[in-house]
Design brief:
Blueprint lengths: L3 H24 L10 H26 L13 E5 L3 E5 L3 E9 L9 E6 L5 E3 L3 E3 L9 E10 L5 E8 L2 E10 L10 E4 L3 E5 L4 E8 L7 E6 L4 E3 L4 E3 L1 E2 L5 E10 L5 E8 L2 E10 L9 E5 L8 E3 L6 E5 L3 H4 L5 E2 L2 E2 L5 H27 L8 H23 L12
Parallel strand pairs: 2-9, 11-19, 20-22
Antiparallel strand pairs: 1-3, 3-7, 4-6, 4-8, 5-7, 8-9, 10-12, 12-17, 13-15, 13-18, 14-17, 16-17, 18-19, 21-22, 23-24
Helix pairs in contact: 2-4, 2-5, 4-5
């Protein structure tokens, strides 16, 4: 039996430790919950395509240089997409896009040079590529390059140079981790895929189980407008986890709005996934609208400082949160509420209208950028009304929605 003094000491230590743990829990940021389901995300994406074109036209009429530099509207220089830091799976390849915005007409005979700081770990397939003009803007050129990750856990800086411009992206080579709920047997990584028309898409297959035979899967499409490349052959390779194998195949959709099902077969095992072919992203500027589980204080929205074209809508703001309802069974009750969608429509229209005001002030008063209150209100109301018509078009309630007694 321990001495009473030792028992008292242990008790005091437990009390102090418990108190410190509770303090640490208070410092932990709260877990952010999803405030947009897949249906709402699709609506917001379609809304973005239409309203971005309207905004772009208005901004160009005022001053083209004032457009945010994102998705198709670029500042002078060279841009690697995706930018910053990017992981690639060992043994697989990744294609990066390169966009050059020049002060002069693009010279398509001048090469774009790509170098790797560690070519033994990250290999560049073609270190020299050439720009091509894809729009009416002769000072804008695009190209792409592909790299392969050869050594696990390695990293390399890729530098892209063209006519005095340069940009850098960091590539980290990682291992392919299976989904946490990977079922036994053969399965596609996703239950459905959306592909851009006439643009290849990588589809991932997993196998979990005991199999010592060569792992070759045959993938077939039931739609002639959805084609599986390499005659549908897909080879599976061992993943880091024992008894798990992974492979990829490429598909392409040749007809807009085509729908089909891919069926993968390997011996007694089979798996299916659905494919839908959609239109390619429009050339030019495009906003991203993202409802988030945050509160931005007095404002209902905030522009992302790292992405001037990304609008975050604070779903915890009192005027928004009330329509989300209670959080039950892993989601908010009001995600499909027409009142929640209408509030989002108003916030987006308001944000875009305010975003245009400084540009209109600059045009009206180029010396100091100031206008009187009546003029400011006129500009805001005019743009707000135009944007609201578009946001309502995509986010107005579905007439089949059942009212839950909200006010």
């Amino acid at each position: 039996m321990e001495h009473p003094f030792a028992q008292a000491l242990y008790k005091k230590c437990r009390e102090i430790l418990k108190e410190q743990i509770e303090k640490l829990k208070l410092l932990e940021p709260p877990e952010l919950k999803s405030v947009a389901n897949e249906d709402l995300k699709r609506k917001l994406d379609k809304l973005s395509r239409e309203i971005s074109a309207v905004y772009e036209k208005k901004a160009k009429e005022l001053d083209e240089s004032l457009l945010p530099t994102e998705k198709g509207v670029y500042s002078v220089g060279i841009h690697i997409i995706p930018r910053g830091e990017y992981p690639i799976v060992v043994g697989e390849s990744k294609t990066f896009q390169v966009v050059v915005k020049h002060t002069d007409i693009i010279d398509e005979s001048l090469p774009v040079e790509i170098t790797s700081s560690d070519p033994q770990s990250v290999k560049i397939r073609d270190p020299k590529v050439f720009l091509r003009k894809t729009t009416d803007d002769a000072t804008l050129g695009k190209t792409s390059f592909t790299v392969e990750g050869l050594v696990l856990n390695s990293e390399s800086y890729l530098e892209v140079r063209y006519d005095g411009y340069s940009d850098v992206v960091l590539v980290k080579v990682t291992e392919a981790l299976p989904p946490p709920d990977l079922p036994y047997g053969l399965s596609f990584e996703k239950p459905r895929y959306r592909v851009k028309v006439n643009k290849e898409k990588m589809v991932t297959l997993w196998f979990k189980g005991d199999n010592n035979n060569p792992m070759e899967v045959r993938v077939e499409s039931d739609c002639s407008a959805i084609v599986v490349k390499r005659r549908g052959k897909c080879h599976l390779h061992p993943a880091p986890e024992k008894g798990v194998y992974r492979g990829q195949c490429r598909i392409i959709g040749t007809q807009l709005k085509a729908r089909g099902t891919l069926t993968a077969r390997m011996g007694e095992y089979s798996a299916k996934t659905d494919v839908y072919v959609e239109e390619r992203e429009r050339e030019g500027f495009q906003f991203t609208f993202e409802p988030v589980d945050e509160d931005f204080g007095a404002s209902r929205y905030k522009w992302d400082p790292d992405n001037p074209a990304k609008l975050k809508i604070g779903a915890k703001h009192p005027t928004v949160k009330r329509y989300l309802g209670e959080y039950k069974d892993g989601s908010y009750e009001g995600l499909d509420s027409p009142y929640y969608h209408i509030v989002l429509a108003e916030v987006i229209a308001e944000a875009l209208a305010f975003n245009l005001l400084p540009k209109q002030f600059k045009q009206q008063s180029p010396n100091d950028g100031r206008v009187d209150a009546d003029t400011a209100i006129h500009f805001f109301q005019k743009n707000f009304s135009e944007f609201l018509l578009i946001t309502h078009k995509w986010l107005l309630p579905n007439p089949n929605y059942k009212n839950n007694g909200e006010r």
